[in-house]
Amino acid sequence: MTSLAATGLARPHRWLRTHPLAADSLLAVLVLVLVLIGAYLGPHTERRPPGLPYVLLTAAACACLVVRRRRPRTVLALTCVLTVVATVVACDEGPPRIQIATSVALALYTIAARTERPTAWRIVAVTVALLTGAVMLFGPPPWYAQENLGLFAWTGMAGAAGDAVRSRRAYVAAIEERAVRAERSREEEARRRVAEERLRIARELHDVVAHHIALVNVQAGVASHIMDSRPDQAKQALAHVRQASRSALEELRATVGLLRQYGDPEAPTEPAPGLGVLDQLVDGFARVGLSVDVTATSALPGTSARGTGAAGAAAVIGPLPGAVDLTAYRVLQEALTNVHKHAGPGARAEVVLLRRPGSLDLTVLDDGGGRPAAAPATATPAAEPGGGHGLIGMRERAVALGGICEAGPRAGGASGFRVRAVLPLQARTGP
């Protein structure tokens, strides 16, 4: 198309492609002119020029080419018959004139270009053999004249050219189809990645905001309640509100910063939270009145370490894959936030970590804060209509790593709630 545009033929080419009947009519006229020029200016014209019957037969054969796309096999049959008849007529007029066979070559080209290869080659072989044999048998002698051999060569080459064009069209169509399919696959993959990223960011925002806002809400309520009677404690509660809100803003800024484009200023450089900062998480709950006991045990081969306290537990657990470390931190954060919000005043929480060779087990227990064991439903807000999405988020995080997360009342009728998660230390390889 570029070369056509460079030569100024782009517009006529587009017009001919959109008007195939007009294009074939022009082609028929052009073939007729070339055939008559070759017949009258050929090497044998001095002895006897072609007569009127030959001209009429040539015009009829070329006229058939107007409908070569609609009726290709009919056009081939008619042009072959007219070529044989013209050859017989020319036999009486003098030397052989097979220029009329140009119409047969175009008909063969059309069939080869528009028909599947096995059928096209059968038609080409039969046509070339019968037409050449008929011209040799009924045409002017000798039968081995160079015109007859040329007829065999040109009709065969027309079939081969049509087959080459058909193959190229099929190749281009296959490339275009693959390109369209690849583009569709890229769009679907992009949409899937966008959906996954939106889900991941929503989960991160929930974990960050829900934890800190819950602390802010509780401390603000305490400060409002004791503002007049115990102003010193109210100031302390407000200080905790300020610290929790500052932490929430910092984590929110770091999470939203992941959406920045490459090269944007002030991109976050802080590492994602993990069990290494578990002591900070536990201290934050301790400041708002939730006592958290942390124990960790390592069941790795050759070791039997056990640690207490957030810092000691993190040391026993040791380094973890980044995704597992972040998921463990978020699960503990959400579970302790639910304990603080729903377990009642004076509740105590216990975090138990177990490092196995291929997994990390996390268990969070609370004593219910004196709440009756018969009414544990208040500890499961995410499972109730209108509740939050904390438990759902924990399960989604665990499942994303190939693990599990269970939540429910404690066994044996004990008061309180239990959250347990098992996180594999190796990513899933299956779908």
Detailed description of the structure:
By secondary structure, the chain is of the alpha+beta class. It is built from 13 helices and six strands. Strands 2-1-3-4-6-5 form a six-stranded mixed sheet. A hairpin with a 3-residue loop joins strand 3 (348-355) and strand 4. Helix 3 (20-40) packs antiparallel against helix 4 (52-64), helix 8 (146-226) runs antiparallel to helix 9 (231-256) and helix 10 (278-287) packs antiparallel against helix 11 (309-317). The longest helix has 81 residues, at 146-226. The two termini are 45 Å apart. Mean pLDDT is 78; it is low at 261-265 and 372-387.
- Which segments are poorly predicted (pLDDT under 50) over 5 or more consecutive residues? 261-265, 372-387
Can you write the helix and strand succession as a string?
A: HHHHHHHHHHEEHHEEHEE
| Alpha-beta classification | alpha+beta
DSSP strand count: 6
**Residues in β-strands, percent:** 5-15%
Largest sheet: 6 strands, mixed
Helix content: 55-70%
Distance N to C terminus: 45 Å
Mean pLDDT, all residues = 78
Tell me, what's the shape?
Answer: rod-shaped
Q: What count of helical segments does DSSP give?
A: 13
The gyration radius over C-alpha positions equals 44 Å
The strands making up the biggest β-sheet line up spatially as: 2-1-3-4-6-5
